[in-house]
Design goal:
This protein is mainly α. The chain is built from 16 helices and 5 strands. It is 52% helix and 9% strand. The strands form 2 sheets. It has a 3-stranded antiparallel sheet with strand order 1-2-3. α1 (4-16) crosses α2 (44-62) and α9 runs antiparallel to α11 (247-256).
Length: 345
């Protein structure tokens, strides 16, 4: 039963809203402060009570700024629905946005999110993940705030602008040795024949990455229609580029022909990553990831072609990236120097 105050509200709202019979009961129509809503209820009393509560909520929100009306969670959801789908890395971005809901106060009004609060969040994240991961999370979250500021008009300033970023970690310099490659291929029972199993496909993906520097996602998304006589065209992290194929790389690609009609690899990136780690551990190896095949490929290929050709092949607009990925050991450089003709004194 409703008390007298609620009964009075119901009586009042009946004059401010419209409640009409419906096949399932009664439909309440509400128009307050430019907001129009309707909902069906079993009884007329329930419809009137809902209208009363919603009117109070709408009138309360009408006097608030956008930063008070919208929560951080709403911003994350809106960004995921409207902005992320247009990005190449949307899959991982949506995963990170969902993870924010577990580590950030998503029910807090976005206008009340402060640099101090975000600084505490950063420090907490640094206790469980690497600095590199936190830097990437901050970059994404900062873009959410910037979009809310520039495009949606929800806030007047980006609270992350005043939050210190963690120091960038040193670039990886891990080069997979030829001995490690051989051990990995043995664990996969690799042969040079046509690919007939997922494990065999993974082994060929590893070899193709070592010969071309292609990323895991680029290999797994490469369609046969973009494979040409001596190069392939990939749509990667830095855009569309042509990647040259050596005779050995072409042989690896041909091994994979017939395994899948549409895609060269015929497996998903997640499968490639999981099986790579499985067989790496099975071979008693550690300390390197699939992405380190790109470092290894850059180190091997850089000895054969000019640096600008290397940048073109790997999709680097800044030649300085070659120094990040080219990681020969001092012993390797010493051996190459020793193999050259002696300089005239």
């Amino acid at each position: 039963m409703f008390d007298s105050a609620v009964t009075h509200q119901i009586h009042t709202v009946l004059h401010m809203s419209s409640i009409k019979p419906h096949a399932s009961g009664y439909r309440a129509f509400l128009c307050v402060a430019g907001v129009r809503e309707s909902k069906v209820f079993r009884t007329k009393r329930e419809a009137a009570a809902w209208a009363s509560v919603r009117e109070a909520e709408i009138r309360s929100a009408a006097g608030k700024s956008p930063g008070e009306k919208h929560t951080l969670g709403e911003a994350l959801q809106k960004y995921g629905e409207e902005v992320s789908p247009g990005k190449k890395g949307k899959r991982w971005e949506l995963v990170r946005l969902a993870a924010f809901e577990r580590s950030l106060p998503v029910t807090l009004a976005i206008g009340k999110v402060t640099p101090a609060l975000l600084g505490q969040w950063r420090d907490g994240r640094l206790k469980s993940v690497s600095a590199g991961s936190v830097i990437r999370e901050i970059a994404l979250l900062s873009h959410v705030f910037e979009t809310a500021r520039r495009e949606w008009g929800w806030i007047s300033a980006n609270p992350l602008a005043d939050v210190r970023r963690p120091p960038s970690p040193d670039h990886r310099s891990r080069v997979i040795t030829r001995g490690e490659v051989s051990a990995l291929l043995r664990a996969m029972h690799y042969t040079r024949g046509p690919v007939r199993s997922v494990t065999h496909a993974v082994a060929c993906c590893v070899l193709l990455a070592l010969r071309t520097g292609l990323r895991a996602g680029e290999i797994c998304s490469l369609p046969w229609c973009l494979v040409y006589a001596d190069y392939v065209t990939v749509d990667g992290k830095t855009g569309v580029r042509d990647v040259a194929l050596t005779p050995k790389a072409r042989r690896i690609v041909e091994q994979m022909r017939g395994f899948d009609d549409a895609l060269v690899a015929g497996i998903k990136t997640a499968t490639l990553d999981a099986l790579f780690r499985k067989y790496r551990s099975g071979a008693g190896l550690s300390g390197f990831t699939f992405h380190d095949t790109r470092h290894t490929a850059a180190t091997w290929i850089a000895q054969k072609i000019p640096v600008l050709d290397l940048c073109k092949m790997f999709g680097w607009s800044n030649p300085a990236m070659a120094m990040v990925y080219y990681n020969p050991s001092a012993s390797d450089i010493s051996k190459r120097l020793s193999a050259r003709p002696a300089l005239h004194q």
